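dude i think i finally got it to work??
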Amino acid sequence: MVQLKVEVLAGEEALVATADFLYQVLRAEPQLKRFFVSDNLVELAKGLRQFLGGAFDGGEWPKVQIGPDLIRPDALKGLVDVLMMTIKKPLPLGEDALVKAVSVLSKDLKSDARVKKIFQSIEDATVKEEEPVMEAAAEAAQTDLEAPPGAGTGLDEEDIPGGGDLDFGDGDEEEEEEQEQQEEEVYQSSSDANEVNTKSFEAIQFPEDQVEQIQQCWQGFVNTFATKELAGEAIYSALFESAPSLQSLFKTPRGVMSMRFLNGIHQIIMALGEPKAAKQLVEALGFQHLDLEVTVPRVVIFRDAIMDLIMTEMGDKLTGKANDGIKKTLNYAGGGYIFIRETFSERLKILATSWRTASGQEADELAELEASTGSGQGEDKNEEEEEFEGGSAEMKASEGRMSGEQIELGMQQDDITSPRSKDKRSMWDRLTGKKAKDQDNNASFEAGNGASSKSRTLNQQGVPTTYNEMFQFNAAVMGLSNNAWMYEVLNSFDAIVKNIANSYRVQEECDLLALRMAKLKGAVKLAEYKAVMLASLRSLVPKDWNSAHEVAWNWLWENVERMLEAQLGKPTARERALGRFLGSLEEDQRQLLREGQYTKFFALAPGGQEYFKQSATRLYFIADKVLEMTLEMYKEPKTMVDDISALGLRHVGYGIPTEFFSPFVTGCIQVVKELTEDDKLTDAFGWSLGLISRVLVRTINEGSTIVMKAINMNSVKQVKKALSCAPRGKRATWMLNITVGTQSISPLIWSITSGSLEAANVIIKDLLTIRADRDRYYYGVDELFMRHPDIIKIVTGDAPVLLPAMLEGMLWRSRIAVSGQRRVNYYLKHLLVDAEGNFADALQWICQMRDPSIVTHSLLANLTDLVWGSIVYTTFLLSKIWLLFTLVVFLFSQSILKHLGKESAETTDAVRYATLVCRAFVYFCSMFELIYSRTKYVCKAIKEGDTVLINEIPVPRRYIEDWHEVVCLLLTVLLVAMFMQEPILYCLQDQSRGSFSQDCPEAMGVREAYAVLSMLTMILYFALLIDFTALSTRLSAFVLVMGHVLPELGLTLLACGYMILTFGSSITTNDETSADFAGIHKAALSLFEIMISMYSGKKFQDLENYSWTMAAVIAFVITITVFLFNLLVAQLNCSYQNIYSSMVGYARLSRIEIVCQTMPSIPQRRFASFIENLKLEERLEFGEGDIGLAGGVQVLEAASAHPTNVDSIRRFGGSTSPAMQWPEEDVDVANSEADRFERLEKSLQKAMKKLSSMGTGGGARKTMKGGSSYSGSEDISSVDEDSE
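look at this
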């Protein structure tokens, strides 16, 4: 049976609760379970409402006792039978069977006895007036509950300062009546007017004549200033001049804050004639100050500053009664603030704990706790529970002071061991059968314990288990599902509840909500949300719900409702006014705005000039964006909030102090005021800009973590110190994700992009360090690649220096060698396969670095060999075998068969036919394939823009960077040319020499050109066979070395050609010249023969008759043979030595390129089978019986390959709670290089100071025996000691 707390409800609330209960019990019925699979929850809820509306003859529901016995078993069985009978009937295509069956109940089966039995069961649960039911107990509890002050005063929102600030009325009419007499009691202080009463908070009352004098005096004070703005500025200045320390408590712009001071005091004084209204005003202001540390000394400072200002301005006009009354009023307000802080913390705690349950956070935390702690932890588990419960004790000890952060903390503290569990899928996903997505931040931490994320089993009852789901269900039951504005409130409700103690944040959420609601059509009735809200909360918090919960949630919504009502309808008018103003601005007016903003800002905050160092055009661009954003905030509030949040997170990285936002906003508002006298326009601009400023400041404050601050300093020490504060279960999150609203920023990526590479190196090493306690291993590699799947691309592109540290962190070597072998775990999962199960791009990104040293890292070497040997080798070999076969066929057609035919007088028919077949194969199977592939690649490169402009002609990039592509292109051109010059085609008409002959007269003119083309084509075919060297790393390395030294050979040949031309030209100038040197061309040819040792000895003997020619030849031989050739040998030797160390790396780069080019052609099924065979999900051992982490492969390497005697796993004892920090590691930071230089510098400075002081200390000190010398040596020795 469904568990339900017994409660008494009436009217709409009773109907909704009954619909919820009926939905649960029907969902639990085995016969109906399979029909609860659609997403027609709203239609089903509407059908249940329509059906239950027939109870009590369709009239108003009386008081009904809602509980487990609401519907009798026999009545439920009858209802199930009726539904099953209806479901089995034929239905129109696409119509939901269960929804149709429920609708039939209310239309066609009202008279059915089984349906009537359901109604009778509900009517039997009706509470009789004389019956002592749960309602009486609830009323008694309500009476016993201490009522909060100010309930139900009925003050309009226009009377509250700030237009919509919150009050503390509980909204309960019965309690309000009971408290009405007490609220009318007069507050008469028997002590001095200087007393600030924080023990009670009752209505304050003065005699009528004193009230009149107080109000006249205050009004006279305000009138002494030209405008109210000046009066507010005077109060602001007087307050902070008397106590500058208070200024840090107020982050609102000065222009706005000064008017708040003035309006708040003004409205309280003007309401003194109505004590009840004055009390509610103080309550509203007290809630605004709930998140501030209001103390009696601060109240006294505030009061005295204002009283001094009033005395200064009013002089003799300040009467004694007015002076005494204003003091008492300020004391009353300050004491009320303090009293409210200390009184309403319990109510805030009720909201926090019940919201944790209703929103499903309690179940999530329980599941996370169970997954992280596991079983058999004993004492450590108790310590973990104490860790969560400690926050509650701290909250109780805070004497009622709660902030928005404490509310959020409270939501993580109470009832952590509740047995309630929840499917992590949303209700809509459960109904549609979608699989759950892992949302647990600690999932990868738990990989070492076998606690990786699993899809939770479907809730047997399948009822709505979160507030959002239950709200949608109840809205449908109550017929309010078409109110789009309610879902806007629903989207913001979590933030409102969590920050209810932070009035500024609640006001911000309500302002943003009002902007979004202004874009929706239809009437807005805020009371409707309250009804659905309470119904949903009662269903989700059935065990703990009582009258205190009713009071707390009524109070919360009334405050939110008042804030929303103060803004509803205004955004549209503000948007029109601001739009007209910005649209009518001329260029000269815009220039005045641009210049005026910074003039005012720099006057208000001179320090801001240090953060605006850009050019004037850039500053004007920012000013224009500010104006655009104020209007866009009205037009597209959702988009703007995301954009502003992203902008705020960027400012977190810039490290700009938030104190400058307030004067900037004030300066902008002042400039607009100078350009227009339209108060509505000024209000529209100031309200929008103020809201933007609040969102920015909040984003920066929430995003400015200690890790980000340390990154901005680029300090290794500070980053390590910041990370040491992180709970071990959240350490990776601190380094990878800072989320504010819908936007997030990664500290790691920011440190890379901002150039803080020292901080980035610390973060990467910390993430990839394996830490362990007794229960689990913590390793951040999964979090790193889940947060940044392209982290390899980022590192290789922006910070290649970090890649070795990253690769080193992704492997583990045992310090123990057994039989000359050492265990090595390579955690290469994320380098091999991406989140979608495809081959990862990591190797491609690494290959683009062209760094031969990085690819020889053992992790990449093993990864490449693993992929190559398992799936790429066969595919690559098959592709090259086709090339080899084509080459063999081409060789037969052009060389072998040609010479076989010469053995007889005439070419045999068999040879001619074989030649035809071979050449046809080359043309049709090789040439056409090359034409297709080259054309396809060129079109793709042009389409994707992967081209390089050469003389304004786009050329595919690979034709510039890849020699293989160039060879293929040339081969294609040569084959086409051969086909056009094919002798067999020319001889088709001549059959005199047999069919398919090549010796006909028609072919005589093309045979020579054809032979040259065949020769070049043969060379290119053999050049492509160089790819076979990839089968052997040593052979590939040798070929690559040859390629790297070829430029040296080319330079030598160029020098030789120059020498041949030089000597050949000089020899021809001699009159006594032999026939071999008669002309430049003959001389150059003879010298070339001499250079390559092809010049015969007889010709040398002939040169003896030409002395000058012989002398020139001897000089040429010495230059070429003795100098250039020996220089070539030396160059080749040095070049080989330089390249030798990298040749294996280049060979591996070549293999990685082949792997990356081949993988797209590998079938997905084959790759999936390869990944499955690797068993990456199985955890690897760190030692015998020590089961470690998953996501890698384990190999054995020679113990001498990478000797180590240090265990790279950091192991810690003590508590195993994920909420605990790691103990301080024993790292000798003092011996770091940077620290040694710092200490050396300080020691030198200290020594120089001593020496300078000794030099100015007088002659007596200088004449001391050995004094100066000894002191100096002592200082230098201390420097040496520090530098060691």
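The longest helix spans residues 1107-1158.
im so relieved honestly
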